């Protein structure tokens, strides 16, 4: 009586876990659709990179769902349920390959993003340098009155700067030195911003690459450990053959014993 109760409890527990597993797989399907649709592969490296992050961020959901569905190998399943298990086993392999592919896509996307960031930073730096060069030319060619106005404007923006407005030649030198100083500061800020962006990109990329590798490895392990779902029919055939052979042996007449009995007589 206790054995039947324990068996029924085990079946109920297995069914509940499988139900939860199917629910998690549906949630994973929703997450994958949200991350991948509409697809922008090759077109947008930022989309590719962030999509990798979304997929690996939700990878525990399908992994746990698959494990729950496969729980209880010995528990009775319908023929339809066995076909679903076979499909999910191959799906684990496909997802493992998919995460490996997304890993390489993410690497390519990070390289392209870094190149775009460098190009944008170089464009901003060139624009700023061109503006400073234009200001320098204006200072060299302008008259003393305009030069004095430029000095007053700079003093308003930077009260700590003291310019000799009574000496036009010295004022030009001071203005050129101040512009050169600001030019170097802007170049330094752009370079620091570029390096900071690169470090953040590398940090995020390494995290997502590691998660993609782990997800692919676990999914491949699930596929490898669920061979019983793909070879279930073969097991039955082998079992029936062995049972048939044992029955044949059991039904084979013992001629040797009969001959011995006849000799004794």
Automatic annotation (TrEMBL):
Coiled coil: none annotated. It comes from the Bacteria. Keywords: Membrane, Transmembrane, Transmembrane helix. Residues 241-257 have a biased composition (Polar residues). InterPro entries: HpsJ-like. Residues 230-265 are annotated as: Disordered. The keyword Membrane applies. The chain crosses the membrane at residues 12-32, 52-72, 84-111, 208-226. This is Uncharacterized protein. It comes from Pseudanabaena yagii GIHE-NHR1. The lineage of its organism: Bacteria, Bacillati, Cyanobacteriota, Cyanophyceae, Pseudanabaenales.
